[in-house]
Design brief:
CATH architecture of the largest domain: 3-Layer(aba) Sandwich
Strand content: 15-25%
CATH topology of the largest domain: Aminopeptidase
Number of strands: 14
Number of domains: 2
Oligomer: single chain
Low-confidence stretches: 413-429
Structural class: alpha/beta
Radius of gyration: 23 Å
Shape: globular
Strand order of the largest sheet: 1-2-4-3-5-14-6-13
Largest sheet: 8 strands, mixed
Distance between the termini: 46 Å
CATH class of the largest domain: Alpha Beta
């Protein structure tokens, strides 16, 4: 069996954990289905003779020590999915990371070389945020941008906390977090640029500014049959208008520069014969510039206040899960381009509108983020698809990038928190 066949076999095997009838997966964080994928990850590390650690937020690390005491360059992503999600998002990056590390270790042994940095592969906890909000939880706790104690107390819609859920599947760990020297992640694009341009690899140069609004619409519960229309304070009617305002706010900006949506809604008491007393919404705003997100937020705050007055109900809005634009190091982009060129793969620079664990890791260590094409650009749904050939192209490039990073090819993370003008100067310098 070739190395590539081994990767494909493992990828399609892991896709069976939480598989849905329409070729997707439902493998939300810290569920029994997630436990199956975690057990598989642990077994892979055990079979290779690698050290396995699980930290206190559920992150899993498979660590290879070739240079005793040296920090680790991590490869990886996440194995959890959205409800009724796709089998590629996240899982591809973890399984590619495991096989890239395996290939690198074999080459080190064959050539008798000792790298400057050790290698490791990570499965981050709750990247998706479908069951527990906010998303990108495990890597954010790792880098210190989210408080671990607070995240362990976060509850799902049934009232189960993160700590309880992790303990129930046996992955509330106590392992020491590894010292990290760099990070590389490969992922499906979740867009159509690479597919349209028929390019093998995208090297991510920056992420969009994102933030969510936590919206609580408070009306008055009453009988749907016995309460006069004029006497109602229907939280669901007001919430429906809020949802439309969130959708429509993007029309105030240039096409393609901003996206907005409401992805979660819960209502109380959720009875067919009761006027809703409370609706809880999460609105998601993302744009190429921070200015546009803040302007969309300003417009929505005004419009939501007007809806509250119109319906004589209270609507509370709080900022939630704000993420600044992150610029990835130019040195990392050049490394990815060099690796792709040496392997005969086409590559271009590309931005990410979605959030990833690499966005968190880029705050603390030199980070490379790679994309492969997504068919039709769809993701977070069962129709999500990337070809075996595209996955193998990505594995080749990730392996080469990981090899070079383990020998110290990327030590500077010079582009964090820069403005776009500074970034452009850095690219052309």
């Amino acid at each position: 069996m070739t190395l590539n066949q081994g990767f494909l076999t493992d990828f399609h095997h892991v896709a069976e954990f939480g598989a849905t009838d329409r070729n997707g997966v439902d493998r939300q964080a810290a569920t029994p289905e997630d436990r199956l994928s975690r057990d598989w990850f642990a077994e892979f590390a055990k079979n290779e003779g690698w050290e396995l650690r699980v930290d206190s937020i559920g992150n899993m690390f498979a660590l290879i020590e070739s240079n005793p005491g040296a920090p680790h360059v991590l490869l990886g992503s996440h194995l959890d999915s959205q409800p009724l999600g796709g089998r590629f998002d996240g899982a591809y990056g973890v399984i590619a990371g495991l096989h890239a590390a395996k290939n690198i270790k074999r080459r080190l042994d064959d050539e008798g070389l000792v790298p400057e940095f050790n290698l490791g592969v990570v499965n981050w906890f709750n990247e998706e945020g479908g069951r527990f909000a906010p998303s990108i939880m495990g890597s954010s706790v790792f880098v210190g941008s989210m408080d671990e104690a607070e995240m362990l107390k976060v509850k799902d819609l049934e009232g189960t906390t993160v700590a309880q859920a992790l303990e129930s599947i046996g992955y509330l760990g106590k392992g020491q977090r590894p010292e990290v020297a760099g990070y590389a992640e490969i992922h499906i694009e979740q867009g159509r640029i690479l597919e349209r341009e028929q390019i093998n690899i995208g090297a991510v140069d920056y992420s969009w500014h994102t933030q969510k609004l936590d919206i609580e619409v408070l009306g008055e519960q009453s009988h749907t049959g016995a309460t006069a229309m004029a006497d109602r304070h229907d939280a669901l009617v007001a919430a429906s208008k809020v949802i439309l305002k969130v959708h429509d706010v993007a029309a105030n900006f240039s096409e393609g520069s901003i996206v907005s949506s409401v992805g979660r809604m819960t209502l109380e008491p959720n009875s067919p014969i009761v006027v809703a007393r409370r609706v809880h919404l999460i609105a998601d705003l993302r744009a190429e510039t921070k200015h546009d997100v803040l302007e969309a937020r300003r417009i929505l705050i005004e419009q939501i206040a007007a809806i509250g007055e119109e319906h004589e109900i209270r609507i509370n809005v709080q900022d939630f899960d704000v993420r600044e634009i992150q610029y990835y190091p130019v040195e990392g982009l050049e490394l990815a381009e060099k690796s792709a060129a040496n392997l005969g793969k086409s590559i271009r620079r590309i931005r990410t509108m979605a959030g990833h664990d690499s966005v968190a890791m880029n705050r603390i260590v030199p980070t490379v983020m790679l994309f492969i094409p997504s068919i039709d650009g769809v993701s977070h749904c069962e129709r999500e698809f990337s070809t075996d050939e595209d996955m193998l192209h990505g594995l080749d490039v990730l392996t080469d990038v990981g090899w070079e990073m383990s020998f110290g090819a990327l030590k500077e993370n010079a582009l964090q928190e820069r403005s776009k003008d500074e970034y452009a100067q850095g690219v052309t310098a």
